[in-house]
Fold:
Amino acid sequence: MSESLEKRKEHITQLKKKYSVYNEILNFYEKVLEEQEAIELTLNVNPVETSKDLKALQIKEGFPLINKGDFILDIPSSVILFESLCQIGKNATDKMREDINVIEDAIKDGFLDLAKLLERHYDKTYIDKILEDIEIDEAVLNFLIHMSIKPFLDANVEKLKDQVDFKNWLRGYCPICGSFPHMSELKGEGQRFFACSFCGFEWPSERLKCPFCENKDHESLHYFYEEGKEIYRVDVCDKCKQYIKTVDSCKLDYEPDLNLEDIATIHLDILASEKGFKRPVPNLWGT
Structure:
């Protein structure tokens, strides 16, 4: 992980004091982080390598370094993590417990191959078929899958990040895997960074730009925030009617974990929806 578990726990404590309404979700996420940390201590990943010429061509043509299916995963360890997260999830909410019971029954009865599910995490058609067959909440299944492979995604990104040509990549999607960002952050003197919704990689971008439709027209790009809480804002695009939340870390006295900040600002997702804007990339909780 980019940040130690201890620092993330401190961050969670701070957020719970500021936003007590999210305590239940934050407590649950803290347990998830603990399970992921235990897996991280044992993993060793050798990511896919690409040639120098191929990387240059990819950057020039706007292709990411690798596809989602190319990430090197430790499936047996991911299965163990998935099962651990299921046990935690049963104590999170009644809805999650019901869905997890359905998942476990499907695995037990042979209708669901957990190893295959994690191997094909990127295959939406396959995932949709499973959702249709066992009738569970899509957000719950996607959360369990993503959290079970995330330590391995992080390990891949750690070894691939130096291959990214930041100077020639000004696109709104991730240069490593091609996914859209789920959050953005203002750092230093206001430089904007996007955080990938899939692999978590962060890359610099133009400050005035919609990552989803590439709109740069200042008259159709604006933002709003809660009065007195300028740290968090919602950047919206009138052209595509989509939005992304932004954290201004220049106004914070700590290094933000954008997944945690995403949880603590779910109310801004609700406000954006009420204003008629859509979030193309759901957060960890499916909102």
